[in-house]
Every structure is written in structure tokens, then in C-alpha cells.
Amino acid sequence: HRAGPAQPGRPATPRRTLPARPGRPSSGSRDAGPAVTPVAAVLPAGGSGERLGGATPKQFCAVQGRPLVSYTVRAMERISWISNIIVVVSPENIETMKSIIEKYGHKRVMVVKGGITRHRSIFNGLKVFVEKEFSNHLLQKPEVVIIHDAVRPFVEEDILSKVVMAAKEYGAAGAIRPLVSTVIASAADGCLDHSLERARYRASEMPQAFLFDIIYEAYQQCTDYDLDYGTECLHLALKHCKTNAKLVEGTADLWKVNPLFFFITDNLSQQVCVITDVKEAVAQIGFLLHESLKSQVKVTISISLSRNDSHLQNIFSGQCYNFVCINVSSKDACF
Q1: Given 3-state DSSP classes, what are the helix, strand and coil percentages for the chain, each rounded to the nearest 5?
Q2: Domain stop point among 257, 280, 296
Q3: Among 260, 271, 331, which Cα is nearest to 296's?
């Protein structure tokens, strides 16, 4: 399914959004490099969301009214040098994904049926470029293919450009981050077996990029065990194609959405406390802001700093709020 032009009257993008950060062009990105290289992106989105809990897979959970996968697709389609975006979903969610594409006017997107594991889903996403029986029409085979999780919406053009350029040079590349915690191995009896020296190891993140011919050959060489139990694409390129991936230091916001993220978006960001000083004009501004916020968030309160009672103390020590403080600097109200 390829999305056509946006239809008149489709819902506008919410003003309050899971930040406008996804796909924001970076002034430091090397546009001239990837721009002359055919590049495509494969987004595995076939997870069941078991670790998140609940009936809805996390890629389809709404964040501020919009499905999470839509933010990630938007981040990719904002980058002009990515020619095709392949979203791989489980068979039962194909129609859901197609409706998301239509509703939000996504372009250059094809929906592909996923497999029973992550690797099998990615392999299916690659097949649309080379196997006629897998797609009604073949897409142009890219020189470089990006693989990126559909549940990682915070991806910038700069890191995508870096892994693509590194993949052109080394055959494969992937974002990494320092380990936050020390990794330990447990013995069969549940006791500590050994620990890893944290300084020597890194956490593998997304995005990753590969010369298409390398990663496709790697998947063709995979055993059933590789496809059913493996999760690391860089390892497949090393194991089956002897390609040593270039590791690219990623940014701190490449994390995957997890239950804590949804708690924050559903609770913390929906609770706002507007604080004003004692001046009447500023208090009026606070009241108007309070009234306007009521229609957009679940909880909003307005309070004056002149109140010195237990209610004010409870506000600061009780629930978690986003705070908006209004005071007066010269003749202007400062937010």
C-alpha cells in the first residue's frame, strides 16, 4: 500500500505534539552525502507490546492523540533523501497501519506483512526491493538501507546521515550509547557468575544502516535459529558477510518508548500548575492561562504565591506537575 497525496480535510497535526524534534533537519548534517545515494528505510513495527502491557501494541498507542508509529514515519519522510519507507507490521495490524497512513497523509510509505520474529519481519521488509513475488511492484533497490525501530520517534537527520555515510564506507554502521548499568551474568543456581567491564562495552541502539547487498545477503544466509532468536542486525552482517560495522556515538534521546514514557505523557504532562505573584494584572493572566489549559490537559490549577497555607505546601510536595510561573519584570509579564 502506497499512500497518495494528503486528502483535504484530514486532521491537522496537533499543536501540542510529541515534540517537533523528530526529523528536524540538523544544520550539521552532511546533506550532500546521502542526497546522492539511493537510501530507503525499513521500520519494524510488528511487536505485540507484551512488555508494555495492555491490548494495544505500543507502536499504535496514541501519544497526544496521534499513534506513536506516525511520529516515527513523519521523522523519516521529512528527510528528502530517504526515497522509500517500509513499515513492517503483523498481519492483523495491516489495515490499522494503512488507515494511519491515510489519516495523517504519510507519503513514500509501503506497508508490508511481518514475520513471527523481529529478524523475519526485517527480512520481509527487505524483500520488497528484490523479490517480485513478494510485492505487486518492485521498488528501486537502494544502495543503503536504514533499519530503525518504529517505537523510537526521537531520531534526527544528523544521526541518520552519519550512519548512512559510515555504512557506505564500512558496509554497516549503527548507533551506540554508553552502558548506564553494569551487565552481569548469572549462574544456573541464580548466583553471580561474572560481570562485564562497563567501560569496554556499549549499548546497541537504532538507527542502523547497511549497504543493501550486504544486509540482504546476510539475511539470506541466516539459519532458522538466527531468524527466530537473534535481535542484532549488525551481528548478522559480521557473522555471514564478515562486515565489521562502524559504531557511531548516538545521542541520549535514541531510547525506545517504554511503559515509563506512557506514564509521563499520560500523567505528568497532563498536570499543570500555574503560579502567579500578588499583582492583580498578573493574576488575571494566570487565570486566563488556567482557563485555556483546562481544555487541553486533564488537571490544571492556578495558585498565587501570596497564599501561605497547607494547600500550597501540598502542591509542591504531593503530585507531580509541570509548573508555569508568571511574574512581572519591568512592564512585561515574563513566562
Answers
A1: 35, 25, 40
A2: 257
A3: 271
Give the cell for residue 161.
546521515
In a domain, 9, yes or no: no
295 and 195, same structural domain?
Answer: no
Same domain for 64 and 112, yes or no, is: yes
Residues in the chain: 335
Range of the domain at 141: 33-257
For residue 134, the 8-state DSSP code is G
The count of structural domains within the chain is: 2
Tell me the whole-structure pTM to 2 decimals.
Answer: 0.68
Any domain includes 19: no
User: Is the torsion defined by CA of 58, 63, 69, 75 positive or negative?
Assistant: negative
Please report the pLDDT score of residue 15 as a whole number. 38
pLDDT values of the chain reduced to their tens digit, one per residue, 335 residues: 545 444 444 444 443 334 344 344 444 444 445 656 899 999 999 865 454 445 678 888 888 788 999 999 999 999 999 999 999 999 999 999 999 999 999 999 999 999 999 999 999 999 999 987 666 677 899 999 999 999 898 899 999 999 999 999 999 999 999 988 899 999 999 999 999 999 899 999 999 999 999 999 999 999 999 999 999 999 999 999 999 999 999 887 665 655 545 544 555 555 666 666 656 555 555 565 555 556 555 555 566 655 555 555 555 555 555 555 655 554 444 44
Residue 2 has what DSSP assignment? B
CATH code where residue 86 lies: 3.90.550.10
Between 233-241 and 118-127, two packed helices, what is the crossing angle to 10 degrees? 70
Task: At 268, list the grid cell.
Answer: 505528568
**How far apart, in whole angstroms, are the C-alpha atoms of residue 75 and residue 59?**
14
The verdict on 55 and 136 lying in the same domain is yes
